[in-house]
Amino acid sequence: MDNRFVKGLLRDNPLLCLALGVCPALAVTTYAVNGLALGVITCCVLVCATLVSCLLGKVSSEKGQLALYMMVSAAFAAVADLIVKANFPELSAALGIFVPLTAVSSLVLSRAAFAVDNTPGEAVADVLGMGIGYLCAMTVVGVVRELLAHGSVFGAAILPGGIPSIALPAGGFLVLGVLMGVFKAIVGKKDEEEDAQA
Amino acid sequence: MKLHLTPAPHVHSPQTTRALMGNVLLALAPCAVAGVVIFGAPALVLMAVSVLSAVAGEACWQRLTGQKVRVNDLSAAVTGLILGMNLSPRAPWWLAVVGGLFAVVLVKGLFGGLGDNFLNPALAARAFLLVSWPRYLTTWAAPLAADAVSGATPLANPSGYTLGQLFLGNIPGSIGEVCKAAVLVGFVILLCTKTITWHIPVSLTLSTLVFCGLLGYNPIAAVLSGGVLFASVFMATDYVTCPMSTKGQLVYGVGAGLLIALIRKFGLYPEGVTFAILLMNVATPLIDRYTKRRVYGYEKEAKA
Asked: Touching check for B128 and chain A: CB below 8 Å?
C-alpha cells in the first residue's frame, strides 16, 4: 500500500514523469503560491472523487463507471471552486478557470481506471501519492519560475530582477522541461540502484 | 601491420568541423569590421562578450556533463559571434552573456550538442532575448557618422533612407546586419570555400523580394532593410537545421521568405526574420522527409 503511495510521489510523479496536468501547470505556476494552491485543490478533488466513486463503482455497471467517475469529480471540482471563491477571492481570480477544470484534468481521469479495479484503500493510497506528488511538483515549478521571472519566492524578493519571458507559457515549457530532466536523472539513478540491490 | 576495417564509404574528406567553422568566422569578419566601423567600440565589446560567454558556457557544460570538451571545433565561437552581431549596439553586455549561455546550454547542449539541436542556437537565443527584453533589442543606436542620437530602423521608417545608405549600412540596426556590402563579401567567401551552396541564401532573398513586393512594399528596400541578407547567408544555412537535399533547401528558403513577408506585414514585430527561420528550422525534418532523393538503383515506391 505504501509502495503505491511512494510510486506516485517519485517514479510515477504525475507532472514531472508522466506529464499529466501540464496545461494548468504552465498556466498558473508563474507564482509559487498559485502553483501550491492549485496543487492542493487538485489533490483534494482527486482523493475525494476517487474514494466516493470507488465505493459507488462497486454497485454500478461496468459501462457506467467512467461516466460515474466524471460526474463525481465534476461535483467535487464545483465544490472546490465555490469554497475558493467564497474564502479566497484573490486566489480565485489568479487561478481562474483552472479550478473548475480540475473536473476534467488528465490526472483525475488517468486514475479512474486504477480506482475502479481496486479496493478503496489501494485506490486512495494511489491518488494520495499522485496528488501529493502533483502538489509538490507544482510548488517546485512555481518556486523556480517565480524566482526566475520575478526574482522572488512566495512574494519575498530575493533577486533584483528577473527574466520576464519565463512567466510566459513558453518560459513555462522551458522550466518544466529542464525540471523534468533533472527529476528523472535523480529518480532514475535511485531506481537503478534499487534494481541493482534487488 | 594493423589493418583498419570499416564499412564503405572509404573516401575520406579532409574537411573538419573546425575548418568549416573557421571559414564561417572568416566570412563573418567583414561584417564584424563593418559593425565596429559603423557603431564604434560598444559593438566590439558586445561581440567579444558574446563569443566568450558562448565558448566558456559550452566548455563548462561539456565538462559538467562528463563529455569531451570540444570547443576547439569553433562551433560555439560561431554561435556566439552571430548572436553578438544580432544585437543592437546599445544592448547591455549582460544580455550577450545570457544569450550566449542560453544558446549553447539550453538550445544546443540539452538536445545533445552540435548536430542534434533542432533550432539554430544563435537565432533561438535571439528570439528568447527579444521576447524577454524587447526594449534592449529594439532600441537602436544611430551610426557614428550620423547626426541623430538614435532612430527608428528602416523597417519602422521605410522612407527615411536611400538605397545607397541601406546598402552600405549607414543606418540604425543590429551590429552585423546593417552593412549589406560586407554580407555579400562574406557570401562570396562562403561560396568560394564551398562552405555553403547558393540555394538557401538566393531562394530566401528572392522569395522575400517577391512576397514583400506582392504585399505592397518596395521589394528592393524590403530586402536591404532588416536582417534578411545576413540571416539568409549566415543563419538559415546552419548545416544542422536546414534540409539536406537541394530541392529541400529551395523549399526551405522560399518558405522562410514567405514567412518573413507575412510577419512583417501582419505580425506584432517589425522584423520577422528570426521567427521565420526558426519556424522553418522546425519544419526541416518534414521537408527532408518529403524531398528524400531516390537512391540509385531503387524504383520509386508504388503508392499503396
From this structure: yes
Whole-angstrom distance, CA of residue B215 vs CA of residue B132: 30
Task: Report whether B99 contacts B126 (CB < 8 A).
Answer: yes
The tens digit of pLDDT for each residue in A117-127 reads 778 888 888 88
Q: Which domains does chain B have, with CATH numbers?
A: 18-290 (1.10.3430)
Chain A CB contacts of B107 below 8 Å: none
Query: With 70 as the cut, is the pLDDT of residue B48 above it?
Result: yes
Q: State the smallest CA–CA distance between residue A176 and chain B in angstroms.
A: 13
**A168 with B131: Cβ contact below 8 A:** yes
Kindly state the DSSP code that residue B271 receives in the 8-state scheme.
Answer: -
CB A14 within 8 A of CB A135: no
Give how many domains chain A has, as a whole number: 1
Domain encompassing residue A34: 2-197
Chain B residues 197-256 with a CB less than 8 Å from chain A:
none
Nearest Cα to Cα of residue B205 among B189, B224, B190:
B224
Q: Inspect the interface and report whether the beta carbons of B133 and A164 lie closer than 8 Å.
A: yes
Query: Is the confidence at residue B110, as pLDDT, over 50?
Result: yes
- pLDDT, position A76: 92
Q: What is the pLDDT of residues B239-248, one digit of tens each?
A: 889 998 999 9
Q: Are A70 and A52 in contact (CB under 8 A)?
A: no
- List CB contacts (< 8 A) between B131 and chain A: 165, 168, 170
**The three three-digit cell numbers of residue A33, written as one number:** 503560491
> In whole numbers, what is the pLDDT of chain B averaged over residues?
86
- From residue A111, give the alpha-carbon distance in Å to each of A25, A26, A67, B84, B193: 18, 21, 14, 50, 60
For A23-44, what is each residue's pLDDT tens digit? 888 888 889 999 999 999 999 9
- The answer on pLDDT for B165 being more than 50 is yes
